[in-house]
Write a sequence for this structure.
């Protein structure tokens, strides 16, 4: 019974995401406006009932074992807050808040997708890898940001005279740095002076190793998790 | 004997792929049209005989051990269906079906290349890695898709006013998201507003780690396969 | 006590980096010029005091155990030199050196960020990976540079007639080579001739494996470090 | 003694590469033409003497233990042939062959760089990784090429009407495929139709895993080599 309910909610979450994506298409929005309104109404109804049920039954869980404070504690955990924010925009118009603001808030409905994580244990492996490697990822992130700032500042001084539009400030040069270091390379900004190209080229070549570090950390973290799971299985 | 037949079929498959690639070249198609027609005729003949022989002899295999149902069972496995679709377009014109439709169907002839997999055991390693890591790859794929949708929706709200052409809907914004997350970065769409660049830059930097996850999974899966093979060799 | 002082210096370093980034924004520089001047004065004061204190107290360390030569030895280590260069530009104008030159020298203030490394032990892991894999990284770097030069020279001969602007010399062709091998792909330079595209495409496909080598080296180096740390923990 | 000779040759090889790069710069070529001519003469002299000495002394090696056939055998090994081709263009003009052709042949002088491999043992690790993983790399390469052809053919049928310039034939579509799969993404060719973008996006996302395979193979191959070397050290 509970399993079918979870499945139904997951399907509803997916449908509401597709609803948001399709509604952003101007032509579809005009043509099927009544359909979108109906689905909006229906999905908010379902998610409201789900939210009410979850708040009602949470006291059965040992963690929220108090009729009032247990419920408040449950309601203030991040996932429950996302649930609330996902249905709130529908009720807010009656309160009289600016509509444009709500429209942007509705963006958070996308976060409903993340709720899927609650329904599936498959999510745990990735979560563990990131949890286990938290510190190492932070250190490399800081290192990458430092390199990013140094490279971008260098490039700012080398290119600002040749390209006053794209390298008018270090923050603009940082955009070049991020696009280059992540190897995205849109091609909207790139060095044009000989010195900029020379230094940019050498620095980029060297930095590729840096960007490879987080991948290496995640890969090794993944292998560790797999080995740990296998060892646990052997013991059981 | 069987070995030479397999080799001959593999060469024919490669030749027919080259034939499709060359035939798409307008100038070559006009100049050597008779050659293309001859090869088309010859290759269909070879593949028809091969298909007939395979259907005829499949009953010798224990799996298809019935003169009628065994053959039907063989014919309905995916690879045999690809074989059939590869030769069918040649016989279909006589039935009177729209020619343009067939032309696009002929595209499936490319799948003949995949048949090579049947002739070579080298294919197995990759297949095993993907098979073994099926679930993990699925989870990370779902996670990447979720992040992709969230990023693209964010970018849609930030850029749609500045670039109504490129960010007119979330589905268009998804194109930006895919091109950026895979670090392809064509440069046809990119954020132009300061807020779009700031958030885009930060999100992109963070997401690089996500894209690294499947690589890490495949790499660790590959290492696992290599270790398993070595252990098997030791035991024998 | 010492801990709070280190934290204060780290915050000051971060603030001075943000100061440089914001000051490069023309509009901000004009509007808040007095604030920038004040912060410049304050930060140089703090870093001057810090530098003086460090030079004064360094003799307590066994390594610099002589009142004069110990201090000179300390002052000539790279990190201390960076500290000196970071504060020197402020005092130099009184000596009468060209201001523009100093402005570019101020760029080195960014290196203050690297000093953070001294305050945090988290930096060590990355340092060890690069230290341990120094030789392997050098060999692959040399190999990548060789491949880069060969590819770029080939492309120069294939494209210089079709694109005299972008491939007028091998050094210009090297820019294409770096942008392609690192998979950045800005799109400012790319082969246009059929032969250039054919060879460029094949070579690029083959070279992807080369670029993957340093990532592999760093990843395996990282795994090694993690294993070594765990083994050390077990022994203790 | 022999060590200094090897070092001298290595420096000469590097200098001759720099010479080629600088000579391609039109302005430099005109201004310092006499210098380039002198260095050309000097380097060919050195490499001619080196080649003569190597051919002369090769008989001392057991492998080439015959005064005539041993030398012919040595001269026909790939590296010795590269040596010969590197100096031949200088002597050929006197024979009266087309100069432009020689100019392009001179490109092979770049291969002198590869000779460095002979002087350094550091090259061996990479060579072993590629040697050990030869078969796996071949299989994944074939798989990538198959996927590449299928994707490019699909894109050709989807985009040829919307972009007759960029997708006029499958071979042109292959250029898009290579640039996308390697995540270079110059931005000269990309799908513009909704269907092309949808399928292109999905396929690209899926293919990223494929491109990650060779990296994974090389990374695991590298780790294997490191482990093997350590085990050998332990035994000794």
């Amino acid at each position: 019974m509970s399993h079918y309910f979870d499945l139904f909610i997951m399907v509803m979450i997916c449908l509401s995401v597709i609803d948001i994506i399709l509604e952003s298409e101007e032509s579809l929005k005009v043509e099927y406006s009544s359909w979108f309104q109906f689905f909006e109404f229906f999905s908010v109804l379902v998610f409201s009932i789900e939210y009410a049920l979850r708040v009602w039954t949470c006291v059965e869980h040992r963690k929220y074992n108090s009729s009032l404070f247990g419920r408040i504690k449950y309601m203030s955990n991040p996932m429950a807050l996302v649930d609330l924010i996902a249905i709130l925009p529908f009720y807010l118009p009656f309160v009289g808040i600016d509509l444009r603001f709500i429209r942007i808030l509705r963006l958070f409905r996308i976060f409903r997708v993340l709720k899927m994580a609650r329904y599936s244990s498959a999510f745990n492996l990735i979560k563990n890898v990131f949890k286990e490697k938290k510190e190492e990822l932070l250190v490399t992130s800081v290192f990458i940001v430092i390199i990013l700032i140094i490279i971008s500042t260098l490039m700012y001084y080398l290119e600002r005279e040749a390209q006053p539009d794209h390298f008018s400030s270090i923050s603009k040069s940082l955009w070049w740095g991020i696009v280059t270091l992540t190897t995205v390379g849109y091609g909207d900004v790139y060095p044009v002076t000989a010195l900029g190209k020379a230094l940019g080229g050498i620095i980029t070549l060297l930095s590729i190793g840096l960007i490879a570090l987080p991948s290496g950390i995640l890969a090794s973290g993944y292998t560790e998790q797999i080995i740990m799971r296998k060892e646990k299985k052997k013991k059981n």
In short: Chain D touches chain A through six residues (CB under 8 Å). The radius of gyration of chain D is 25 Å. Residues 134-235 of chain D form a domain with the Helix Hairpins fold (CATH 1.10.287.70). Chain D has a mean pLDDT of 77.
